[in-house]
Amino acid sequence: MTPGKAYLDSDQIRVLAARSDLMGAWLVIHCWGVIALAVLGFALWSNILTFALAVMVIGSRQLGLAILMHEAAHNALFKTRWLNEFCGEWLCGRPILAELPAYRHYHLTHHRHTQTDKDPDLVLSEKFPTTKASLKRKFLRDLTGRTGFKQLVGQIALSIRLAGDHDAIDSARQDAAQAFKAPQLWKSAPVFLGIIVLMGLLGEWWYGLAFWFLPHLTWFQLVLRIRNIAEHGATEKSQNPLQNVRTTFANPLERLFIAPYWVNFHLEHHMVMHVPCWRLPRLHMALQQAGLGGRMRVSSGYRAALAEAGWK
């Protein structure tokens, strides 16, 4: 049962859950448009500041592509099914070395068993709260590329090991470390490498390495970790849908660099998982109007969410 049905009537949920092909197209175009503008900004005003900003913005939009693939996994990105599958797979998932069917298989298991022993994401959340020193080490590994490089090497090794072994592929789809990673890398690598080549052809030869590969190894890994911590880190290990997940309010800078496309409204997503991301603020208001405001786990911002996880 969708947890939100205990607090909202079917008509409310039906209105909130309505999909839109036009809005789905706008979200995909917006995400790639921001990436293009970040590269163009550096090309026009080339300096260390615009370079760093481009890497950060593109890394956050790589997370944005992951979020839009997540939308497609819930059949919420587009109203038209084939558009949902095609765009979720080829325009969102494979450009970041992910795979929509594998992610959907994994992620729906997370929804069925949130914060229980059967939750494949539990390994990501049960280590929190931790110490500030531990968080600093994790963030440093992310920003220096160590996390991204290690995971890329692991993904390559996994793909080689799984080649042709369908049972092993199904098992890998339950691995939290593979949540946004294609277990059969050879299917996604040509798209990822194609973007690197295209950026090099349209700009300087090194643009693809600097503005796709580097963000993927660094900023994308950092914001992916922060997102994971904010969503379920230091929450209840229980089946209470109001306390085993967290919504984090995000200011404009946080939405730009950390939390694109309303990903911060995570409690609402768990309440009614097929509501499109752009309607989650309205779902938040509906839950408040239903009298749940004081019962929901909500943080005032990402600094506050990280403080609950140990950044004090």
From TrEMBL:
Extract the GO molecular function terms from the UniProt entry.
oxidoreductase activity, acting on paired donors, with oxidation of a pair of donors resulting in the reduction of molecular oxygen to two molecules of water
Pfam families recorded: FA_desaturase
Q: Which GO terms describe its biological process?
A: lipid biosynthetic process
Q: List all membrane-crossing ranges.
A: 24-45, 51-69, 191-214
Write down the superkingdom of origin: Bacteria
Start and end residues of each Fatty acid desaturase domain: 48-289
- Report keywords, A-Z: Membrane, Transmembrane, Transmembrane helix
GO CC terms for this protein? membrane
InterPro entries (UniProt xref): FA_desaturase_dom, Fatty_acid_desaturase
CDD domains recorded for this chain? Rhizobitoxine-FADS-like
Supply the PANTHER family for this chain: DELTA(5) FATTY ACID DESATURASE C-RELATED, FATTY ACID DESATURASE 2
Name-wise, this protein is: Fatty acid desaturase
